[in-house]
Amino acid sequence: MLTTPTAYFPPTSWFLAALRAGMWQWEAHENYQKGGWRNRCRIAGANGPLLLSVPLEGGKHRQMPIREVRVSHHSDWQRQHAQAIRSAYGRAPYFEHYGDPILESLLQPATLLYEFNYRLTGRILELLGGPVELVDTTAFRGADAGAVPGPEAVPAYRQVFEERYGFQPDLSVLDALFCLGPELLLLPND
């Protein structure tokens, strides 16, 4: 079983490790920590890597339980993220197949970050029919020491902007989903 923090469109390496483990446990009892992938993801944009961040309600620097962290709606960030994703991956081989369901899930109302992330990752697993069970920790466990994989865990595959920037190894799982489709399940994940 893999244990990681929650993540907004998680890195591909985490997704591959979850496929290998068969069960992906999200740390549901930690306090929010700035940094990491809890409220942001990295996608391939036409001008290089693009970081998308989910804005949070005030107090994001406080030690707040992750399941209580609220998403801010002071800007139209969901529509902006949807446009960025469509712009980045609209020409990817599998965007036509997966784009609309992913963007529909992204544009649904979001109140709590943890639930929002869970919904998005669950939707990707559902679309792929991936053999991964996504569950919450029942008590504080923390991420597995050394078990959260890094970019080196992602084998090269054809990316939309690879000719401009070379292979970018650990973008959001959206990159692998839109570029590989169901072949994402076949990537070596050792």
Oligomerization category of the chains in this entry: single chain
Query: What proportion of the residues form beta strands (DSSP E)?
Result: 5-15%
Over all CA atoms, what is the radius of gyration?
16 Å
Strand order of the largest sheet: 1-2-5
How would you sum up this structure, described in words?
This protein is globular. Helix content is 34%, strand content 12%. The mean pLDDT is 91. The two termini are 14 Å apart. The longest helix has 16 residues, at 113-128. Helix 1 crosses helix 6 (173-180), helix 2 (77-89) packs antiparallel against helix 3 (95-107) and helix 3 packs antiparallel against helix 4. It is built from six helices and five strands; from the N terminus they run E-H-E-E-E-H-H-H-E-H-H. It is an alpha/beta fold and 190 residues long.
Element layout with pairings:
Layout (H helix, E strand, L loop, with lengths): L1 E3 L7 H10 L1 E4 L13 E6 L2 E6 L23 H13 L5 H13 L5 H16 L4 E4 L25 H4 L7 H8 L10
Question: TL;DR?
Answer:
This protein is an alpha/beta fold and 190 residues long. Helix content is 34%, strand content 12%. The strands form 2 sheets. A 3-stranded parallel beta sheet has the order 1-2-5, covered by helices on one side. The protein has a two-stranded antiparallel sheet with strand order 3-4.
Provide the descriptors you would attach to this structure in a database record.
single chain, 190 residues, alpha/beta, three-stranded parallel sheet, two-stranded antiparallel sheet, 5 strands
